[in-house]
Specification:
mainly beta, OB fold (Dihydrolipoamide Acetyltransferase, E2P), globular, twelve-stranded mixed β-sheet, 634 residues
C-alpha cells in the first residue's frame, strides 16, 4: 500500500511582505526506517510470472494503494495535473501506478488522506520512483492576511513551471517489498510549505518551488481517510462494499478496487435519503453498480482495513448531477450565506477554487448534520460552519458565484477552532478565537448569531459548550483547539458545541527555520543525544524563524533562551538529512545525531530545518516526532 502524502510546515507570516519557507527535498527508505547507510540489497522473491491483466496469473501479483494527504499551511489551492507516479526496481523495471493523469488540489488534504489509486503490480523490491506534475493549467492560491492571492509557481531560476519530474529515491537499507497477495504499506510525503518560498509583493504572488519529498513505511501522522469511486459490488453479510477508485473529482478512468468496511453506526446518505448500517448497504445495493460514492473513515494499518464513518452515494455526492460548493460560512442573513475558501464542483467540469460564493437557502433546503440529529432547518447554519451545499449555480464569473440552494441541500461538517483560553467553568470554556478552519477570525461577521445583538458571538470571548469534557485550569492563556459545530444562527450563547478539545499539552506545533540562500556553518550551539540546541540569535537566520503552535506564532529570535529540539520520548519518530541528491532517514535519534555531526564539519552549511511535535514554552523545549535538516553541499 502506498500513501502519497503532501505535508506543509509553518506558514506565511502575513506581518511581513515576504515569507521564506524551508526548502527541503527528502526521499526516504521504506520498511524498517532504522537508519541511513548501505546494506546488502534484498533479492526479489521468486514468484510465478505475474500479469495483472491475465486472470490466470493475477493472483501472483501484489497490491499498491496510493493515497494523498497534506499538512497545515497557507496554500488555499494548489491544483495541478499529476501525470505519472512510477516505482522502479533495482534491475531497471519501471511500473506505472496511475492508469491515467488526474487533476488534484493538494491543499484540500489538510485533515485527511485520500486514496488515489489501487494498482496490481509484480512482486519485488522497489528501490526508487518518480512523480511527474504538469503546471500548465495550475491553480495556485495563497493566503495574504485574511484574503486570497493567486500565485505563479516558478523554479529556482525564476522560470515558470510547466512540467516537472521529481525523483523518489528509497534508501539501500529499507526498501519497498511487494509480495504475492499482500498489500505493501508506503507513505510518500510532498510538503508544500517546506517546498516553496512565497513572495507576496508581486501580483500574482510568486511561489518558488524546490520540492521536498519523503517516503516512509508507516505514516508518522495519521488522519481520516477518504475513498471516492464507483460502486462495484455490495456484500451485506461481510458488512462491506467495493468501489472502483476515481480520486478527487475525476470523472473518467478506473484507478483500481478498494473494499470499504461499514458498521451498524456508519451513516449513509443515498440519493438524498439517510440510513445507517445494513439499511445503508441495502440502499447502496439498490442504487446499482456504477453509482458514485464518497466514504470517509479510518484505516486499520495492521489489518489493512478501511472502515467508513460516513458514506454519500448517488445524487448525494457533491457535484455529481447538481452544482456544489464547499467552504466556511463567513456571514449570513435570513436566507443568504457567504461561503469563503470555496471549492466549486460542477457536473462535467473540473473542480475550481473561488474565494467567496453567495448561497441562497430557504424553507425547502434540506440540512443534515448526522442521522442522530435528524433533518434540520436552515437555522442550524451559522457563522464559521464548514458546509457542503448542493444546488444550482445562477451566476458565475471572475467576480462572483451565486448558488441557489432553495431546493438543494446543506451538509454540516465538523468545524475546527483555534484560540487562547480565557476562562474555564463547568460545562463551558471561553476563548479568544483566532481562527476557524485555519481562516483568520477577522473575516467572519458574527452579526445575527445571538438571541439579540448583545449576545452575538464575540471572538474575544467566544463561548464553547464543553459538557463533561474537562480542561486543566492552568490552561488559561494557553492555546486550545476545539472540534464541533457552531450553535444555530440566532441561538447563541453558547456560540459553539464542542465535541473534542485538544488543550495546550497536545496541540501540535511546527518549527521552521531558514538560514538564507547561502546557509550557515553553525546552526546549532550543540548537537547531542539530548537534542539540537538551536542558535536563536544566529545572524544568518532569514525571515523564517517561528514556531506555529496552532493559533499562536512564536518568534524564535524574540525568546529569552535558545530552543532545544529534542526527540519525543515515545511513539514513532522520523529524522531526515538531505544533501544534494543524497538522502538519509533515521528512526534512531542517536544515529541521526552522529550523521548530522559528521556532515556539519565546518565547510558544509545548513540551509533550513523543520520539526513537528509539541512545544513547551516554559522550558523552551520542542519535543519532535519528525525533524528534517537540509544541508548545502560545499
Amino acid at each position: 500500500m502506498i500513501f502519497f502524502a503532501d505535508r506543509r510546515t509553518g506558514g506565511i507570516n502575513t506581518r511581513t511582505s515576504r515569507t521564506w519557507v524551508a526548502l527541503l527535498l527528502v526521499v526516504a527508505s521504506l520498511t524498517g526506517c532504522s537508519g541511513g547507510g548501505s546494506t546488502t540489497q534484498p533479492a526479489d522473491p521468486v514468484v510465478t510470472a505475474c500479469n495483472p491483466a491475465d486472470p490466470s496469473t493475477a493472483a501472483e501479483c501484489g497490491t499498491v494503494l496510493i493515497g494523498l494527504t497534506d499538512a497545515d499551511g497557507d496554500f488555499l489551492s494548489y491544483t495541478v495535473d499529476v501525470l505519472s507516479l512510477t516505482l522502479h526496481k533495482a534491475n531497471g523495471t519501471v511500473v506505472e501506478t496511475l492508469p491515467r493523469s488526474t487533476r488534484i488540489d493538494f491543499a484540500n488534504y489538510v485533515d485527511l488522506t485520500e486514496f488515489i489509486s489501487a494498482k496490481t503490480i509484480p512482486p519485488g523490491t522497489y528501490v526508487a520512483g518518480s512523480i511527474r506534475l504538469d503546471y500548465s493549467n495550475a491553480e495556485v492560491v495563497v493566503a495574504a492576511g485574511g484574503e486570497s492571492r493567486p500565485a505563479t509557481v516558478v523554479d529556482a531560476h525564476g522560470n515558470v513551471l510547466t512540467q516537472t519530474e521529481m525523483k523518489i529515491d528509497l534508501s539501500d537499507r529499507e526498501q519497498l517489498l511487494v509480495t504475492r497477495g499482500r498489500t505493501a504499506l508506503l507513505t510518500v510525503d510532498f510538503d508544500l510549505a517546506a517546498s516553496h518560498t512565497v513572495d507576496l509583493l508581486p501580483t500574482p504572488a510568486l511561489a518558488t518551488a524546490e520540492p521536498f519529498i519523503v517516503a516512509e513505511v508507516d505514516p508518522v501522522d495519521h488522519k481520516d481517510i477518504r475513498v471516492r469511486g464507483l460502486l462495484d459490488s455490495v456484500n451485506e453479510a461481510a458488512m462491506s462494499y467495493t468501489v472502483r477508485l476515481r480520486p478527487f473529482h475525476d470523472r473518467d478512468g478506473d484507478f483500481g478496487r478498494v473494499e470499504v468496511k461499514v458498521t451498524r453506526d456508519t451513516e449513509f446518505e443515498v440519493n438524498g435519503d439517510v440510513f445507517s448500517g445494513s439499511e445503508g448497504l441495502r440502499a447502496l445495493h439498490a442504487s446499482g453498480p456504477g453509482t458514485p460514492t464518497v466514504a470517509r473513515g479510518t484505516l486499520n494499518v495492521l489489518q489493512r482495513e478501511f472502515t467508513a464513518r460516513l458514506v454519500l452515494a448517488g445524487s448525494s455526492v457533491p457535484g455529481l448531477d447538481r452544482d456544489a460548493v464547499h467552504g466556511n460560512v463567513i456571514s449570513r442573513s435570513a436566507t443568504k450565506l457567504v461561503i469563503r475558501g470555496a471549492t466549486i464542483l460542477r457536473p462535467q467540469r473540473d473542480a475550481y477554487f473561488h474565494d467567496d460564493v453567495v448561497v441562497t437557502v430557504g424553507p425547502d433546503t434540506k440540512v443534515w448534520k448526522s442521522i442522530r440529529d435528524g433533518a434540520l432547518d436552515i437555522s442550524a447554519i451559522s457563522i464559521g460552519q464548514q458546509v457542503t451545499v448542493r444546488g444550482e449555480v445562477t451566476v458565475s464569473d471572475d467576480e462572483r458565484v451565486h448558488l441557489d440552494a432553495t431546493n438543494g441541500a446543506v451538509r454540516l461538517h465538523i468545524t475546527h477552532l483555534s484560540g487562547l483560553v480565557n476562562a474555564i467553568v463547568p460545562g463551558q470554556t471561553e476563548i479568544t478565537l483566532q481562527s476557524i478552519d485555519r481562516r483568520r477570525v477577522e473575516i467572519f461577521d458574527f452579526a445575527g448569531t445571538g438571541t439579540s445583538t448583545e449576545t452575538d458571538a464575540d471572538p474575544d470571548n467566544y463561548e464553547i459548550a464543553t459538557g463533561n469534557m474537562l480542561l486543566n485550569i492552568d490552561n488559561t492563556g494557553q492555546p486550545v483547539v476545539v472540534y464541533g459545530f457552531p450553535n444555530s444562527f440566532g441561538a447563541a450563547p453558547p456560540d459553539f458545541e464542542g465535541l473534542t478539545i485538544v488543550d495546550f499539552s497536545d496541540v501540535q506545533s511546527v518549527l521552521g527555520v531558514g538560514w538564507g540562500t547561502s546557509g550557515t556553518i553553525a546552526p546549532y550551539l550543540s548537537i547531542g543525544s539530548d537534542g539540537l540546541l538551536l542558535n536563536n540569535q544566529n545572524p544568518d537566520i532569514d525571515q523564517r524563524h517561528h514556531i506555529k503552535q496552532d493559533p499562536v506564532l512564536i518568534d524564535l529570535t524574540g525568546l529569552d533562551s535558545n530552543t532545544l529540539i529534542a526527540p519525543r520520548e515515545s511513539g514513532r519518530k522520523l529524522f531526515i538529512i538531505k544533501t544534494g541528491d543524497s538522502v538519509q532517514l533515521y528512526s534512531d535519534f542517536d544515529d541521526f545525531v552522529n550523521a548530522l555531526t559528521l556532515e556539519l564539519d565546518g565547510s558544509t552549511t545548513a540551509r533550513s530545518m523543520f520539526a513537528r511535535g509539541h512545544y513547551d514554552g516554559d522550558s523552551n523545549v520542542f519535543s519532535a516526532y519528525k525533524i528534517g535538516v537540509y544541508l548545502l553541499e560545499p
